[in-house]
Amino acid sequence: MRVSLKDVAAHAGVSIKTVSNVVNNYQHVTPAMRERVQRSIDVLGYRPNLAARHLRKGRTGVIALALPELGNPYFAELAAAVVDTAAEHDYIVLLDHTGGRREQEILVSQGFRARVIDGLILSPIELEAEDLRDRENVPLVLLGERDYDLPYDHIAIDNVAAARDAVRHLVSLGRRNVAFIGARSGRSEPAQLRVRGWREELEAAGLPADDGLVAATDGWGHADGAAAMARILETGRRPDAVFAYNDPMAIGAMRVLHERGLRVPEDVAVVGFDDVIEGRFGAVTLTSVSPDKEAIGRLAVESVLARLGGDTRPPLRVSAEYRLVERESTVGRGVRG
Question: Which of 42, 48, 133, 337 is the most buried (most CB within 10 A)?
Fold first, then answer.
């Protein structure tokens, strides 16, 4: 049998309004009264009806999170951070998979779920600025590296700086022929920014940024990284380091290096990006750029809720923190990231 506010009030010997004030964490309740009501809540096992609470405010209690790749471990870990933060605020998360396709990103961003969600967190790949103009529905927070210069909160890391840090680490270890795998021939701002960082840091070190060591791919998975690494080696070039667009590609590249009899890191040092959990448990653990995924998820949810609460500040441009975690793929055994 469901326990109601009336049941709790009767058990505690207080009014229903007092119980409601405690449940909703209103400030003007004495500590003694709060403890008394909470004791009855615990004894009876009362659970608030969150749906009813949101409906009284004219809301659904649902935030949508739209991601391009659900199979990518980075997005899985990011989604977990969003879900956990939303739960702390009594919200649930509706997950949408866009596949990085513009038509699906337009569908999501233009509010086809507007009646069932209170806000949207979107990580776009192909969406254009004009797709987001004159948009009048639920609050929107953008994730990722594309700057749309539009009135929406935007959370990202500095991809150029992060890529430069990764390449600087390789150069500091004496590596001189650094490959990049995961470029894109078409539009993909994250890939372009990471290639730019790769190029800028090599040039700053007085080293050649050899375009023959840049491998473009159609996807960003393990197989794509393996195929890109194989193509570079088949040209006869022998990089002594690889900077991969993400960790799955780096892991795929390391597999090919192993198959060709090349040792990591002795012959070829490898750095990935995103610091996903599988990179920490391979035969050779992976050095990786580690974005603060928990902070990104938390900031995204809090930005949506702030806008729902009437925050009218100018759009926020938030640069989330990251760090380079050094592991065996660049510094060898005996170092724990």
Answer: 337
